[in-house]
Design a protein that fits this description.
Length: 174
């Protein structure tokens, strides 16, 4: 994707190295999820969590605001899997080290411009560089065809029913 360097820039960073960018990412997450789950639940579900500081983040910035971001969390053990409630019976199938693509969010004004696709590709490349065996993702049905084009396979339904929608668990062997 070609980005106009005067208006939009992309950064890849490890969370604890750039706390100021994590703050911008959290603001974007909450803005986009408030209307879906309500402001009282969005901070709890999509605010910064214990994984953000140790995770890799790809963020697109415009005018000092995050307009798109996604997280790659790499872990070495089942006990460290983020969003464990979503993966339920699939936890026993996981080989480690494993990467988890989560917290993808694109500002409503910037959707359908390729930012999500760019972030997904960057996270897959980063996972390969970090020698992950596989990538796992929980995605709503409308994202499944895109993820399948990137080599992901649907494993089954998400076990987390706290957010309405048709959510699925997918894997990509690396």
């Amino acid at each position: 994707m070609s980005l106009d360097p005067n208006t939009i820039r992309c950064e890849t960073f490890l969370g604890h190295d750039r706390p100021e960018l994590l703050t911008l990412i959290e603001a974007l997450r909450l803005k986009e999820w408030d209307h879906v789950v309500g402001p009282e639940h969005s901070a709890q579900r999509f605010g910064l969590d214990r994984f953000d500081g140790q995770a890799w983040h790809i963020v697109h910035l415009s005018n000092h605001a995050a307009i798109a971001s996604g997280r790659l969390y790499c872990c070495d053990a089942r006990a460290d899997v983020p969003d464990r409630q979503s993966f339920g019976p699939y936890l026993d199938r996981m080989g480690f080290p494993a990467g988890f693509l989560n917290r993808l969010v694109v500002d409503e004004q910037y959707r359908n411009r390729g930012f999500g696709t760019h972030i997904d590709a960057a996270r897959i490349q980063l996972a390969r560089q970090r020698s992950q065996k596989a990538l796992w993702v929980e995605a709503e049905q409308w994202r499944v065809p895109h993820l399948q084009r990137l080599g992901f396979t649907v494993i089954g339904p998400s076990m987390d029913t706290s957010i309405a929608g048709d959510w699925h668990i997918l894997i990509k062997e690396l």
